[in-house]
């Protein structure tokens, strides 16, 4: 089963918490305030339990952050796999499929949070770089198949990658991009 980027429900108070419950709460804090907001007291409060419950599953906050990083890397690896599955599609459909993955609202918050975390964690930065590399490679190959020379294919693939990153970071500030916006953008990039 593919890792899910966000879990919206917290366990009911009084139920026995597992490590996954703590990690789900940690993901929510990561999404809200970044890795700097991750504190045992905040997680305990969010889950409605004492701090002692935390230590049943984790030695310390550094151990939890390490497990959270593993979880986030799995989310990124799943995205790389989804992208690789697009490689058999015709070029325009491949690019549309990538755009659909990038514009998925469930990914925006996680992607933005992970990119912020990557500024201070090399292992997260590596998983972001792998995903970006996959996006660029698929886009570049599709542009070449559409008949663009190397320089144009490179420029168009780079534009698509940077637009996706910008879309993730600007989400909510400039209004929602519509399906028409996306269609026009992709048409501009793929038109000869």
UniProtKB/TrEMBL annotation:
DNA-binding residue intervals: 39-58
Keywords (A to Z) from UniProt: DNA-binding, Transcription, Transcription regulation
All residue ranges annotated as the HTH tetR-type domain in the record: 16-76
Gene Ontology MF terms: DNA-binding transcription factor activity; transcription cis-regulatory region binding
SUPFAM superfamilies per record: Homeodomain-like
Protein name per Swiss-Prot or TrEMBL: TetR family transcriptional regulator
Taxonomy of the source species: Bacteria, Bacillati, Actinomycetota, Actinomycetes, Mycobacteriales
């Amino acid at each position: 089963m593919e890792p899910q980027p966000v879990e919206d429900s917290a366990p009911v108070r009084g139920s026995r918490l597992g490590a996954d419950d703590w990690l789900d709460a940690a993901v929510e804090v990561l999404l809200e305030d970044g890795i700097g907001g991750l504190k045992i007291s905040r997680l305990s409060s969010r889950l409605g339990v004492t701090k002692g419950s935390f230590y049943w599953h984790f030695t310390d906050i550094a151990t939890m952050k390490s497990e959270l990083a593993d979880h986030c890397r799995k989310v990124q690896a799943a995205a790389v796999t989804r992208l690789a599955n697009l490689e058999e599609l015709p070029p325009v459909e491949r690019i549309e499929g990538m755009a659909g993955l990038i514009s998925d609202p469930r990914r925006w918050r996680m992607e933005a949070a992970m990119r912020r975390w990557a500024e201070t964690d090399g292992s997260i930065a590596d998983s972001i770089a792998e995903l970006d590399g996959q996006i660029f490679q698929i886009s570049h190959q599709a542009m070449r198949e559409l008949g663009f020379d190397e320089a144009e294919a490179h420029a168009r693939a780079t534009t698509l990658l940077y637009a996706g990153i910008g879309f993730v970071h600007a989400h909510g500030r400039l209004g929602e991009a519509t399906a028409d916006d996306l269609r026009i953008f992709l048409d501009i990039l793929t038109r000869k």
